[in-house]
Fold each of these.
Amino acid sequence: MSHQSPVEPMQESQVTSQSPVTYHKVSDQFKVPHSSEPPAVNMMTDNGNKFKVANRVSTFGTNLWAEFSSLANEHKATNIGQGFPDFPVPEFLQEEVRKAVAKPSANWYTRAQGHPRLVKVLSEEFSPMIGREIDPMSEIITTVGAYESIFCTINAFVDSGDEVIIIEPHFDCYKDDMIISGGKLVRVPLRPQGDGSLAKNWVLDPTEFEGAFTSRTKAVILTTPHNPVGKMFTQKELEYVASVCKRKDVLVISDEVYERVTFDDNKHVRICSLPGMWDRTITVGSAGKTFSVTGWKIGWAFGASHLITQLNHVASCSTFSAPTILQEAVAGAFEYERTVKDSDESYFKWLPAKLQDNCKKLADAFSSIGMTPVWPDGGYFMLVDTSPMHWDFSADNTGREHDVDCVKWLTREFKLATIPTSVFYCDDHKDLGSQYIRVCCAKSDATIDAACAIVRGLSKKSHC
Ligand code: PMP
Ligand code: GLN
């Protein structure tokens, strides 16, 4: 079965311009009077300091996704950078949205900690996988994307001065959420060992990992399958991490948003299912990644009720609840998937096979010109080593790392958008990533084919 039909890639103009939709005219009585607009603020007046950004967020600047996505749009590049599938939503998911919107109560606020139908489905889905009954009403929360689950977890548990250990390279939002909480990130890099062209050979050094713990350590953040390396932590590796976390008595935040995308014979292992880990682990998931609908922004976290309750306290004062219609549709999608489980109609069977196939095509294209891909165990991403190339991209010298200039040059000169890898490291460790670019295999056939054609057209001597 194919869950992918041809689709036009989204153009910047579609993002920025008005869609040709006719809206009902709003009657004049509902129009906002002009005088109610906020007064224009002159940031340079004596009152200026009242509008000064709060110290804790003043270092944020432009988010990396905004930076590299707008670069891709500006150059109308083939985008294998940002991690969003650009293939269309399969019919069964569209049908679930239609059914949801037609149901009156699905258009109302739902239960703050999670729409009852969705938390029930998630409990039925994950309980057998972790070997214990997850209580749908107290041990699961649904959120606005996995982003919100991570935000709520960090802000529920991390105090100013607390330390959290993170494995580098890492997805960027962990860092910013930590800045908001006032906590301190302590980074431990994955080290490629032996054949570094396999993601599974990027490993934790036990001395570095255990040396990172102090009396202030509150939690460890894990990502498996990993963004951006594509590593899936094995049972043995997770047993080791679990044993250290138990010995040091810390929480584990396990980001498993790419759990459905596993390649070859790799098995996704959930650290919360290991002995003694349930009471100390918060597991994060994403419907956006599970059903390739990143724009739906439905995520969840599950764990012991004493942990999940705290996430709910943070969520209740920010978003209160995630969109009901989409929670309803995600629940319907899981229910539908159950009816086709293991058959050729199964989305969960189709998705990893398709993304592995895409990754293989990209890996072959990069290898054909002498670049070395780091073959992933699973997930959306693959790193590619640019060091064998002798490219001259001096015109794009930003004063930042080599990979940032390389990505800018590929986007501008060859209309191929990728993501640098050094951006997933702290300033002190950026060198560890600066020879790699990250590519995303969760893309339509049209995007993958266009990207492979561009890559095959590059040569060792390409220059600006
Ligand atoms: N965790 C990781 C590792 C991610 O790559 C992402 C990006 N999608 C998220 C969390 C956020 O997921 P969501 O889109 O569901 O908020
Ligand atoms: N998680 C996605 C990635 O790593 C992007 C998230 C975003 O665009 N904010 O590419």
Amino acid sequence: MRIDVISIFPDYLAPLSLSLVGKAAQSGLLELAVHDLRSWTTDRHRTVDDTPFGGGAGMVMRPDVWGAALDDVLQPGGTLIVPTPSGETFTQRVAESLVIESQLVFACGRYEGIDARVAERHRQGGGTVREMSIGDYVLNGGEVASLVMIEAVARLLPGVIGNPASLVEESHGEAGLLEYPVYTKPPSWAGLDAPEVLLSGHHAKIVRWRRDRAIERTLDRRPDMIEALDPTTLDKADLAL
Ligand code: 6GU
């Protein structure tokens, strides 16, 4: 997979060279490039924005600059991702749908956003555009949201996570439940004991305990996820914890 990020603050994307994503890029599992949008400006002031048609506060990013950048960066069949608080919600399911793409281009807007014709033109040319929000709050630009989405997608690439079993039992995985609490050594710490069942070696009991704690936690923190569960996943006995 290839990932390109276009931003007026390319330094904001520096964390992409660290940790798992950075290693994936270094080892060739992932091709990664960050571009400065201003390199596609043609005026002396390197202008990327202008006042909104129709009036109102703030500035809008110009379609001509973005169009030139995307013409150079987007490959045939590439998917354009536009981070915006008015997008569809980015979820684990969306991450799974993106990891199979050949190229993702993240177009990081600032100010009041990017002229809507940029997305429209790409769609008209047969391209895929996904305007994505990472949650119900407002950030100053798409850079941090892009970091979030890129990490969520890159860790799903085969070979990026050392132990693929780590991907199986996690929160927001297949089961539709949050993950159970975890413990390690020492067995007793600060007057607190790790749950005895986890040290018992009784595998079936451990599986049952973890499932019960996952259900309990999800009921407490994310009742909306319980509502959304496939009815065959839980029975009444599971909810009577
Ligand atoms: Cl993707 N961008 C901005 N600017 N704010 C956000 C967001 C994205 N997702 C949530 N808030």
